[in-house]
Structure formats: structure tokens, C-alpha cells
Amino acid sequence: xxxxxxxxxxxxxxxxxxxxxxxIQVATTFNNDVALLHVVEEAMFTxxxxxxxxxxxxxxxxxxxxxxxxxxxxxxxxxxxxDCSTIVKFGRIHKMIIDTAAELNxxxxxxxxxxxxxxxxxxxxxxxxxxxxxxxxxVVVKSEQHVNSYKNIVFPLDLTSESKQKVNWAIHIxxxxxxxxxxxxxxxxxxxxxxxxxAALRQIEKLLETNQVKYTExxxxxxxxxxxxxxxKYSEEMNADLIMIMTQxxxxxxxxxxIGSYAQQVVNGSKKAPVMCVNPKKMNTEWVI
Length: 289
Fold this sequence. Notes:
Layout: E1 5-9, H1 14-30, E2 33-41, H2 43-46, H3 55-80, E3 84-91, H4 93-103, E4 108-112, H5 126-133, E5 138-141, E6 152-156, H6 166-177, E7 180-186, H7 191-210, E8 214-220, H8 227-237, E9 242-246, E10 250-251, E11 257-258, H9 261-269, E12 275-278
Parallel strand pairs: 1-2, 1-4, 2-3, 4-5, 6-7, 6-9, 7-8, 9-12
Antiparallel strand pairs: 5-12, 10-11
């Protein structure tokens, strides 16, 4: 059987190195291959070379990047026995990441982002665009984390049909890592909605029990506190190794996409735990009560 491949965009920065270390851990556990991608950004050449493209400079930049990637790939193969391919492309970074993941039939993307606090920090960034447009799960890594597995996974739950789509990923990862899934949700203050939320929670629990995946649950009372901030606070309390969210994709003009405000805040605000962003598929189904 063909191995699954994890795509890791790499710009030779410190945060990209953290993301690669994270990908190596996942690839080792799941026996996956890794594909390293470096994109020579077209803006580097079109911004100051107003007289047009300089193909010679582009070629030199790509050759230099290829040599650096090959060295990293060799080290990965030697130290971790992981097959690691290298790709260098020229163009818009987020588009090349999306296109390459599709071309290689990757099953996930693991990438770094230095987006810190504030909603505007990640808006318009390459990480934001990849998260919003990718059909694959995107794991965003922002710091070096010395962990060997996803032992504690925080699973925020709401009443959207998209929220239910995370369950298969939680089961898949939870079985391999023997994880504990920490379901986290908040009451709404509305009796009918809270009843539906409780019913949805019981469905999730039944699925996890059927698949013998450990879990805990925490239901907080209705609060003035932002649920994204509550999620981050809870993940820190649980020393989470991963936060699993839906992107809640919203369509914009010119076929551009942004990730929903909750996803933005969690990705930006989680300083330690990587965030797995799952792009919801269009579905007409709702929770079965």
C-alpha cells in the first residue's frame, strides 16, 4: 500500500523547523512519508525588479533552496528512517502549498505560523489562506514542543453540523496515540439549545466508547467570556498536546476565503499546543436528537 504523505512547507525559519520536528514525530508514529516544500515567492522578484522577471535570479534562488532542502531530507532519512522528498516552486506561497498537497495526494499539511495575539495577526497571512482553502487538515505549529505524542487532545464542541465531522479524526488519532479526548463545551442559557447540545455530547461519547477511545467532558456555564479564549484557557489547564477545531469557512468575493473568527482566535491565541484545523465539508445533515 502507498504510504500517506505529510506536506511540510519550509522557509528555513525557526518556526518552520519546529513544524518539521512536529511532522517527523507524526510521520514516525503513522509510518508516513514527508514532502518538504520551499516556495520562492514571486514578490521577491517582482517587487523591486520593475523592468520585468529575472529568470536567472529565479533559477539561482531555486537551486540554492533545493540544495538546502536536500541536506535536510538526507538528515531526516539518516536519523529517523523517513522517506523525505523535496520540492521547490516559484509563485504565491499559499497557492503553491495548496496545489502541491493536491498533486502529491497528501493527507495533511503541517506548517509553522508566527501569528501571535490579536485577530489581525494571521489575517491575510499564508497560514491563514492555507487553513481557509485547504481541503486537507492543517496542523499549525507555533512553538517548539518537546512531546512524543498527542496524549491530550482538546475537542471543542458546538451545535454546528460541522463540529461533528471532527469525530472521525479524533478517533483515528486517539486510537494510534492512546489519547484522551477532552470534550469541551459551553451552555447557551437557552433550554432547548442546551438540550440539543447535551444530546450531541452523548452521541460523541457513544462513538468514542464504541471505538474504545478514552475521553473526559467539561461543560461550562454560560459566560461573558469569549468561547475561543475559554478553549485556550482549558487547553492550557489540560496541558493539551493538540487542539482540534473546524475552520468554519466563509466565502468572500473573488473566491477568496477566510477562516471563521473562532478558528482565528484559537490559532492565534494557542501559544504552546498545535492546532489541527479541519475544513468542513458541505453537508445538509444536522444533529440527530
